[in-house]
Structure prediction request, 428 residues.
Amino acid sequence: MKLIIKDGIVVDPYNGIKEALDVLVEDGQISKVAKNIRHKSAEVIDAAGNLVCPGFIDIHVHLREPGYEYKEDIASGTRAAAAGGFTTVCCMPNTDPVVDNGAVAAFIRDKARQTGVVNVLPIGCISKGQEGNEITAMGELKEAGCIAVSDDGKPVMNSSVMRNAMTYAKMFKLPVLSHCEDLHLSRDGQMHEGFYSTYYGLPGIPAEAEELMVARDLLLARLTGAHVHICHISTMGSLNLIRQARKEGIHVTCEVTPHHLTLTDETVGSYDADTKVNPPLRSREHVEALWEGIKDGTIDCIATDHAPHHQESKDCEYNLASNGISGLETAVAVIMDRLVNQGIIDLEKMVQLFTAGPARIMGLEKGTLSPGRTADITIIDPNLKKRVDIAKFNSKGKNTPFKGLELQGWPCLTMVNGVIAARDGLIV
Prediction:
């Protein structure tokens, strides 16, 4: 199959391209990127006025299958990803059973091939049973297709176990994705500790609960030489620690979520449990520090931490509610509307954070429109205005604090392996 994407603005930070060009796709691969491409037998996609980008990658999602299919499954989660402009997702291992062996990883890969509409790459556990006591057989996990290891929302509190995990992960060239949280400091906390936690009468989680574990894991990365990736960074202190670590040559990368970039702890005053996340929404000074972390290159990518939940686990008292936001279908529009359109970050930086950045972290041959690469493509209409309508979500999770908001700049076409997977938010 041959098709030409005509007259769009090609934005490919990997190759330093931002220019009106055509893209020729042949047999599932990028064949040519140039002006005025003509091909008699090719289907033409009119992209005039739109942004043609490498396929967006999300390295931190929860697809919930196996075990929690009532919250999400691979079919619904990947449909949500395609609708939101993502062509590749990396799924966290906190399923039931957890991904601590090759069999579960193989199940996810097989199920994704059967029911998924985007590329799915599993992440394996750091520790057996996600219990933080004994490391997994990482060679087995890698052989089964895992591209990284993480215990996700259960931080490895035992420093000796984490040291051993990093040592073995380095051996198998697997990034260690760390959820940095000192459970002793965060226990029973419901939101960021500060003025608004006192004002709203909710127990707080101090920024230091994250920063202490960031510091520990950076020291362990220095000791072992491993690649540590800090998940959903949320504080200025964490950013400063990472900056210093890089000066020392420590191999560290980090991600930030759309909600930590655009919402503050003041939002929690609605007592809407859709604002409850871990790490919590922070104060304005931390949010603005994250903006600076993007501008100066400290932050390597944006990841959604897509965490769909059943309605009952959110429609309850705040202290009883589950943490998490269903983020795949709104992430691009939120960043476009709240950061790019406001002049906080530029368009090229935004695209880099969704493409070349995550590809580099995970060692993927993706994130670019270079000829010869797989034709994973995301097209964005920068002028399209829509309200976030949870009734139209492909995800089973409707839990988002962005519901009802009008946003400008939405994905309008998602192509996976040369095949159109979604158009105008609808699965093809």
User: Anything to note?
Assistant: The chain has a mean pLDDT of 97. The longest strand covers residues 2-12.
